[in-house]
Amino acid sequence: MSWKDDPLDRQIEAQRDAELRKRHQRINLECEIGALKARDEPPPDPIAQKLESKLIRAQGTLSLAFEGRGGFSDAIDYATEALQLDRRNTEALTIRALAHAQLGNFNDAVDDADAAIALDPDGRSPFAARMRRDLPLWRLAVLR
User: Fold this and answer.
1) Gyration radius of the chain over CA positions
2) Any idea which of 38-42, 110-114, 128-132 has the lowest mean pLDDT?
3) What are phi and psi of 40, to 5 degrees?
4) Which of 34, 66, 75, 97 has the CB geometry, 3.0–4.6 Å to 113, for a possible disulfide?
5) Cα angle vertex 99, ends 97, 104, to 5°?
């Protein structure tokens, strides 16, 4: 007697098939809903895409610079380009503040840090946490 002849096995197999069909229908429905939502969304804003690209470059360059594999001045350049697109972008200000401080430009670092904190007092990015931690030291360096 094979497993196909056993009524219990056939019943279990039928239940599995039914569950798989339901799951497949749900997945297809979710895909269709996603396609409809995407169709109804406005096209992406080219300036927002450009800003995001500049921020990603600035973040990556700053991270590499902290690891000793990049230049802080490049991070400043990318953050400045992002700020030319959006003067109130706190992430770009934070990145630029950290990079300025690493280059010893403490006046610029404090200015950018103060601007970032004024715009977003609760900044929660890892870079913002580092900037907040180091800001008192930068202020002391400016006073010297």
Assistant:
1) 27
2) 38-42
3) -85, -15
4) 97
5) 90
Tell me, what's the pLDDT at 109?
A: 95
Other CB atoms within 10 A of residue 127 CB? 20
- Return the number of other C-beta atoms located less than 10 Å from residue 124's C-beta: 7
* Contact status, residue 99 vs residue 128, Cβ threshold 8 Å: no
Other C-beta atoms within 10 Å of 81: how many? 17
Give the contacts of 50 (CB within 8 A, at least 6 positions apart).
Answer: 85
Q: Distance between CA atoms of 78 and 76, rounded to whole angstroms? A: 6
CB neighbour list of residue 6: distance below 8 Å, 6 or more residues apart: none
Is the pTM of the predicted complex or chain greater than 0.85?
A: no
